Amino acid sequence: MLTHIHIWNFAIVEALDIELESGLSVLTGETGAGKSILLDALGLALGDRADNTVIRHGESRAEISVTFDTSNSKNAEAWLKEHELDSEHECIIRRTVNEKGPSKAFINGKPATVQQLRELAEMLVDLHGQHEHQSLMKADVQQQLLDDYAAHPGLVNKVSSSFKEWNKLNTEFKKLNSAKNEQDHRLDLLRYQVNELESLNIQIGESKKLDVEYKRLSNASQLLQTTEQTLHALEESDKGSISQQLSHFTSELQQLGKTDSKLNDIASLLDNATIQIAEATSELHIYVDNLEMDPQRLSYLDERIGIIHDLARKHQIEPDKLPALFERIQKELDSIENADGHLEQLQKDIIITADAYKRVANKLSKSRINAAKILSTKVSENMQELGMEGGAFEIVLNTHDAESFHANGNEQIEFLVSANPGSPAKSLSKVASGGEISRISLAIQVIAAESTRIPTLIFDEVDVGIGGRVAEIVGLKLKQLAIHRQVICVTHLAQVAALGEHHLQVSKQSDSSTTISQINYLDQPQRVKELARMMGGIEITQQTLSHAEEMLGKVGNS
Fold first, then answer.
1. Vertex 255 angle, CA 254 and 257, to 5°
2. Residue 14 contacts residue 55 (beta carbons within 8 Å)
């Protein structure tokens, strides 16, 4: 529900704050006072094209901010949550238009795109009249409205899920069948690659192990020479081995430590060094004893590593990735070789899912046909009451090709209207008169009010070209509609305005330098004067005032 509108430096509005409530709110005012400004500002906030000519003269920026209570709008709350813009059952949309540079949009304080504004707006507000937000003109909205009226969400969901299952299998079949037609060349290549990799029989981690072993064997001579030289230096010397010499000096320093304790730490270090050198010497002996000079093994490693690296270069991967490549190619080969069996099974599954889709889609079609007949009759009856005598409303189900499946079912919904007796029925989107569209929309919305998903309905020019009894009926229809939804109506008819629960008046004040438009809430005495003005024109008589009082009193007692 729309709860608040803030307009700043927009057109002839300097600053305006409007609090809105549930039920029926009427907006009146003299011609040229600026009734359309409210709707234009709202349209801008909800994604209309921004033009810097809307900025109030002498200012550099205009701003529109609208606030919605989304607690009863599950679709909008789900959308906000999905886009990480949710905020405790409240949605604040802000749009700024700058004299220089692009306009900016925000949803709950976060930057948003104009497309996001439009998507969200379709779940929150429906404007009926000569405006861009006439969602009733859209085929998907017409279908949604009929489905909501028919109250068969289970069937709609089943059709959608059945279509998805069938489409998934059908897409897989086409992909696999296409691959099968090109498989001969691919099979030859895959078989050759699998045989090549299978013959190599490379193991996971083998490449790195071979590199380490090859490096050691290819440097065996140098390793042996260096380690033997080291052992000779450690063990063979004219003065004895290094360990023996260190032991001798350690012993002497320990004796001297009795005289100067500072030498004890040094003697300890030498003692540790003696132990470590002895351990190193022992390890070197073991290393030399096990060091092999194996030319044949080295030759094998050289050849093996060469083959591995050549094959890796051929496939443009690292050598250690060859085992994974083998597994992947083998799986692809198995898949293609078994494609016929898979295709056969897919065909069976497709037939099963197609039959399931047809069954549930046909049930949905029958439900839609029944609902369309009832809704068409009721809307046509309402049109007679709304000053469109002889007019007729018809819901047509345009059936898709029998061989084609669609997520929304077997047909596309289209609303047709004949506004006058004898006139051919035309698509609702092609009805010329904005007033007729508004009244037809009103007729539909009144009937579908309990099932419609949009919480706020705004009607502009709904009473164009009517008066008297029909005007009162329009007002009563709006009031009936407002039982289930918030309704805002811009009107110039006293019969309609009198039925509003909340009355807002647009007025314009001018001086030599500026013109300002403002909106005021009217109390009971003020409403009497405004209704009298709407009925009596420039000169308001006591009789007109009495008539206005009578109209409001009649509404209050109804």
1. 60
2. no
Q: Model confidence at 542, in pLDDT bands (50, 70, 90)?
A: confident
DSSP bridge pairs for 393: 417
Q: Which residues pair with 125 in a beta bridge?
A: 456
The class (CATH top level) of 1-134+455-466+484-522 is: alpha beta
Q: Which residues pair with 395 in a beta bridge?
A: 415
Question: Average pLDDT of the chain?
Answer: 84
Is 90 exceeded by the pLDDT of residue 465?
no
Please list, in sequence order, all residues whose beta carbon lies within 8 angstroms of the beta carbon of residue 289, skipping any fewer than 6 positions away: none
Question: What's the whole-number mean pLDDT along residues 513-532?
Answer: 86
Rounded distance between C-alpha atoms, residue 113 and residue 47, angstroms: 9
Residues 374, 411, 135: CA angle, nearest 5 degrees? 70
Which residue from 230, 226, 248, 252 is spatially nearest to 239, judged by alpha carbons? Answer: 248
pLDDT score recorded for residue 466: 72
Nearest to 459 by CA among 425, 492, 426, 431: 492
Where in the chain are the domains? 1-134+455-466+484-522, 184-337
Polymer length in residues for the chain? 558
Residue (of 532, 492, 457, 555) closest to 2 by Cα position? 457
Q: Which amino acid is at 430?
A: K
Instruction: Please give the structure tokens belonging to residue 96.
Output: 């700024």
Note whether 419 and 432 are within 8 A (CB): no
What is the reported pLDDT for 193?
85
The token duo for 219 is 């440097």
